[in-house]
Amino acid sequence: MLAGGLCKTNNYTIEAYWPTLGDRRDFSMFCDVGQWVGKNAKVLDKKTAIECLRLIREQFTDLQLVELRDHQGRLARG
After folding, report:
1. Of all residues in the chain, what percent carry a pLDDT higher than 70?
2. Nearest-angstrom CA–CA distance, 37 and 43
3. pLDDT bracket for residue 78 (50, 70, 90)
4. Taking the domains of the chain in order of start, what are their residue ranges?
5. What would the pLDDT profile of 20-40 be if each residue is shown by its tens digit?
6. Alpha-carbon span 9 to 18, nearest angstrom
7. Which of 8, 21, 63, 76 could form a disulfide with 49 if both were Cys (CB 3.0 to 4.6 A apart)?
8. Distance (Å, whole) CA 9 – CA 56
9. 58/72 Cα distance (integer angstroms)
């Protein structure tokens, strides 16, 4: 079973999923990912979708799946 969350930057919509850890830990993970994306939004917006995906996966190794969509509908998943 997976838990997940949605984050946005100016150029990307980011969905991140991880194995569920219980309500409190899932909320904490969602907050951690969202805060990191918010703090690094300018950097992420300057990168391609694949580069953004790589940065997020390097920062959060517990994530099982990350999907990025840009405003034109292009998708990166990993």
Report:
1. 100
2. 9
3. very high
4. 1-21+29-40
5. 989 999 999 999 999 999 999
6. 20
7. 76
8. 13
9. 25
